[in-house]
Write a structure and sequence with these properties.
Length: 503
RNA sequence: GUCGGCGUAGCUCAGACGGUUAGAGCACUCGGCUCAUAAUCGAGUGGUCGUCGGUUCGAAUCCGACCGCCGACACCA
């Protein structure tokens, strides 16, 4: 029985347009999913959209449509972007789907039945844009500190989740699971939040109607967060398919941005405990993609959208850049110039050019028929190192290191060609061995880089005469030295990644 | 303010339980090659490892102070 591997992105709020920040998380999740498929794992990769809440309700009113119609439009936009970026999600969940509404009600009912929800009153200054209450201290000149807009006084009967009762259980859980949050700095932040004391939180609203109804109290809907987090349970059959749920839970990998650490690393584990479940096993927290050192935001007008870059770099160039250039964890600064440099260096000069030169020499010295590699080639050891290091890096949520390890093999192959100069040799066994080695490197790289660049790798696979696709290969066996059989037609063709002129 | 983190080559970063001449990629310089997308290969230039002080035979690494940057401390998608 293969290992289950469940990976999620946050579900994206449909009030926003998909930008490269969303794409960064989603591409990382996609690459992880693809890597684990190569390992033969039973992968389930989930993304989706979060569609409830006051912002959506108001936005719909302003546009003269129903909230669901409003959500349909923006949710579709996310789907289209992921489609265009070759995202291989197995499911796309929308919080407005009946399966999710049923799941939220079952999940929250379980918490209620377990005695962790009580009635209370909440009153305060409320910012519609934030969907959040503020204290007087928070306000800036009477306005919302984030949006600078006037707040409204709201007072309502709420149901409260008794988060305060979970301080100790959460600390115990963190103690028992030292590796649950990556990187460790983020784990410490979560611990800090817990140690500072947790107050009960209101989980329902009467002031709005666009949400999941509270099953035990008509007129209340759940606050959008307590609806949203449960999507991770819904998608694997919570309350509907116990066997399937048990297969994928709690061995989940949640990927998330640091802005929502509190919800994922404190509230969500507590909610799981309250509902009688194990908390999620892995939480991967990453930083922001900055632009010119500043956070992307609508108001700064510095948002960058995937389509802006895919035109210049291609889908795989786009995917590669965000996986390779930003270590998973810290903030990363995006710049177009840096993206061009990396594209030209890693993709055009190193990888693409290797295929070009190999195809040409095989055409001239081997009649276009790719020979088999030398079983004793020095590149064999390099390939083994690359596989080992890449595997370790993927396991440690570090795509940039995984790709760096893979590119070391490409560099070794280019150097191997220089050392042997096959273009000076007459056709024969010596040329065959060198070119077979180079083709074998291309074959292995095509497999190892498939999580980052699936379409390009499939194309390389085909250009060197192999049948099937690299995505069908199974590691680690497929990356063992000597897998290229020889005797296959090798095609010359257009450059894999045309250089981008910097002038 | 409280807590935490960071400050290493022009740029992006690795290294740090103390120990030989501090590393990589990019950029730059020189040389080789001409199969290849003016690509590639090799060599080299470049750092008082934020500042000051302490511990030590020995500190980028441990301790303290300071300077600078950042984050968390909000019912923040």
């Amino acid at each position: 029985m293969s290992e289950p591997f469940y990976v999620t992105t946050p579900i994206y709020y449909v009030n926003d347009v998909p930008h490269i920040g969303h794409a960064y998380t989603t591409i990382t999740a996609d690459a992880l999913a693809r890597w684990h498929r190569l390992l033969g794992d039973d992968v389930f990769f989930l993304t989706g959209t979060d569609e409830h809440g006051l912002k959506i309700q108001r936005s719909a009113e302003a546009n003269g449509v129903s909230p669901l119609e409003q959500a349909d439009v923006t949710s579709a936009r996310f789907r289209e972007v992921w489609n265009s970026l070759d995202i291989s999600n197995d499911d796309f969940i929308r919080t407005t789907e009946p399966r999710h509404i049923a799941s939220v009600q079952a999940f929250m009912q379980a918490i209620f039945d377990n005695g962790f929800i009580r009635k209370g009153t909440y009153a305060g200054q409320y910012c519609v844009a934030c969907e959040a209450y503020y204290t007087d201290d928070d306000l800036v000149e009477g306005n919302c500190p984030i949006h600078g807009r006037p707040v409204e006084w709201l007072e309502e009967d709420n149901w409260f989740f008794e988060l305060s009762r979970f301080e100790k259980p959460l600390l115990d859980w963190y103690e028992a699971h030292p590796d649950c949050v990556h990187p460790v700095g983020k784990r410490n932040e979560a611990l800090g939040i817990i140690r500072q004391g947790l107050a009960d939180v209101s989980v329902s609203r009467t002031s709005i109607s666009w949400g999941v109804p509270v099953p035990w109290d008509d007129g209340h809907v759940f606050y959008v967060w307590y609806d949203a987090l449960i999507n991770y349970a819904t998608a694997i059959g919570y309350g509907a398919d116990p066997d399937r749920f048990a297969r994928y839970w709690p061995a989940v990998h949640h990927l998330l941005g640091k802005d929502i650490l509190r919800f994922h690393c404190v509230y969500w584990p507590a909610m799981c405990m309250a509902a009688g479940l194990e908390p999620p096993a892995h939480l991967g927290v990453h930083g922001f993609l900055l632009v010119g050192g500043e956070k992307m935001s609508k108001t700064r007008l510095n948002q960058i959208f995937p389509a802006d870059l895919v035109t210049d770099f291609g889908v795989d160039g786009f995917r590669y850049h965000f996986l390779r250039d930003n270590p998973f964890g810290p903030d990363g600064d995006f710049s177009y110039e840096a993206m061009v440099t990396r594209y030209n260096t890693d993709l055009a000069n190193n990888f693409g050019n290797l295929l070009s030169r190999v195809a040409t020499v095989v055409g001239r010295r081997c009649d276009g028929i790719g020979p088999a590699p030398d079983p004793a080639s020095p590149l064999g050891a390099v390939a083994a190192d690359s596989l080992r290091d890449a595997a370790a890096a993927w396991a440690g949520l570090s795509p940039s290191n995984a790709l760096e390890a893979t590119w070391r093999l490409i560099a070794a192959a280019n150097a191997h060609l220089e050392t042997n100069e096959p273009w000076k040799m007459d056709p024969g066994p010596a040329v065959d061995a060198v070119m077979g080695d180079a083709l074998e490197v291309l074959r292995i790289v095509a497999i190892l880089a498939t999580p980052a660049m699936p379409a390009t790798c499939a194309h390389v696979w085909e250009r060197i005469g192999l049948t099937g696709t690299p995505a069908e290969q199974r590691l680690p066996d497929a990356a063992a030295w000597g897998g290229y059989p020889g005797g296959l037609p090798v095609r010359t063709g257009d450059p894999l990644f045309p250089r981008i002129s910097t002038k």
